[in-house]
Amino acid sequence: MSVAVTSDGGRVMLVSNGFQPNYEAGFANALARNGVTVTLVASDETLREQLDPSIDVVNLRGSQDSRRTAWRKALNLQRYLWSLWWLAW
Question: Which residue in 14, 24, 52, 70 has the most C-beta neighbors within 10 A?
């Protein structure tokens, strides 16, 4: 999980490295419920129904299906990295 928080609560973009849905939801909710404006970079596995309504969810990662072909995984990763860079900019 990558996060940076300012002393006044501020705004963060939360990037889940391992895409562990329960941890991701709990961490994002804790930040949001403590006055932090959260943008969560999500995947298809993100537990949207468990997230605080104030969290901005952006599904950049998409599918995490291990049965995908290698070229689909590579294409998905390339698209994800470009989209993540663009969102951060």
Answer: 24
Amino acid at 13: M
Whether the CB-CB separation of 12 and 4 falls below 8 Å is answered with yes
Q: Where are the alpha helices (DSSP H) in 15-69?
A: 21-32
Q: How far apart are CA 33 and CA 61, in angstroms?
A: 25
Single pTM value for the model = 0.75
As a whole number of angstroms, the distance between CA 58 and CA 80 comes to 11
d(CA 51, CA 30): 10
What are 37's two structure tokens? Answer: 């404006």
